[in-house]
Design the sequence.
């Protein structure tokens, strides 16, 4: 799958390169008069467990409309509604999928969420492998971006991308899958380390992976557990293993009740608070996925080459919501 993700991102990199050659790259976000444009401190938010200090770990709630392994998850909740629901329920930060081909994301979602609450720390979750992608992220309100060791398995490259992000006031979350990845992450100077229970080559999830690696956390590092986390006890297990935060997406997005799902995950009393309206007949917002894009019986993705499994965002309908 990583090769497919690389291929899917290449047109974006090529487009950014053309913009850079023409001098048309968007300008980075800068703090203006009175602090306008100031990015929230993603690292400090995790350390302070902002939003729900009594939770076992900080929760980074994810806005994920679709995924390669699940097809369409939920398209009836707008970025604005998601930001409101998550922050009201106690999220420390929000992870925003911006990858378009396989996850139905959009870079514009970052600005739309920040427009609802500029103080929310936003993590751009995408397949970032080129300095131009970091530059494009710097033009958004993102407080952090994701770097994946297996996508850029070179400590120097990881360091350069991280330092570029930090120069623009963003933190870098460096994602690993095993001990070998951890070695590279540390060589690159990573401070925020995310352990993904999902192998991006096979898409298989093994929630014990983060529990096994947790004891390797070093002083001064902030660790995030990701994938396969769906219950309050999973948060407690992550905390016991030494994690500072957990990133949760599908378990919160399924069904459209983001606020209620997060309240229950955090162990708070919660009732369903938002349900997406019935389909308006707009094919882009119907939430259906063609059979060939559904996971196969074994749980592996069944994605045709060069195909897009995700229904597009219908901005008109979402804006009306």
Sequence:
């Amino acid at each position: 799958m990583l090769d497919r993700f690389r291929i899917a991102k290449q047109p974006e990199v090529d487009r950014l390169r053309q913009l850079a050659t023409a001098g048309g790259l968007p300008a980075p976000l800068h703090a203006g008069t009175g602090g306008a444009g100031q990015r929230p401190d993603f690292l400090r938010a995790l350390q302070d467990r902002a939003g729900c200090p009594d939770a076992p770990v900080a929760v980074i709630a994810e806005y994920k409309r679709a995924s390669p392994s699940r097809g369409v998850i939920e398209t009836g909740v707008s970025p604005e509604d998601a930001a409101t629901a998550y922050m009201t329920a106690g999220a420390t930060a929000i992870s925003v999928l911006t990858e378009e081909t396989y996850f139905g994301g959009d870079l514009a979602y970052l600005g739309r969420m920040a427009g609802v609450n500029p103080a929310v720390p936003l993590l751009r979750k995408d397949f970032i492998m080129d300095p131009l992608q970091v530059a494009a992220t710097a033009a958004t309100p993102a407080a952090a971006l994701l770097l994946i060791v297996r996508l850029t398995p070179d400590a120097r490259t990881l360091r350069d991308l991280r330092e570029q992000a930090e120069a623009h006031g963003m933190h870098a979350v460096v994602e690993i899958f095993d001990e070998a990845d951890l070695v590279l992450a540390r060589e690159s100077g990573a401070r925020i380390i995310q352990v993904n229970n999902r192998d991006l080559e096979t898409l298989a999830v093994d929630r014990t992976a983060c529990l096994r690696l947790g004891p390797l956390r070093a002083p001064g590092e902030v660790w995030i557990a990701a994938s396969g986390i769906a219950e309050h006890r999973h948060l407690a297990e992550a905390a016991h293993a030494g994690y500072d935060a957990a990133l949760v997406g599908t378990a919160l997005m399924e069904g459209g009740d983001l606020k209620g799902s997060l309240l229950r995950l955090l162990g708070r009393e919660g009732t369903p608070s938002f349900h997406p309206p019935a389909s308006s007949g707009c094919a882009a917002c119907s939430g259906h996925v063609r059979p060939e894009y559904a996971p196969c019986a074994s749980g592996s993705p069944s994605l045709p080459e060069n195909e897009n499994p995700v229904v597009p965002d219908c901005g008109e309908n979402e804006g009306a919501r």
Observations:
- The chain has one domain: 2-11+39-320.
- The longest strand covers residues 58-63.
- Confidence is low (pLDDT under 50) at residues 32-36, 270-321.
- Residues 63 and 96 are 5 Å apart (CA to CA).
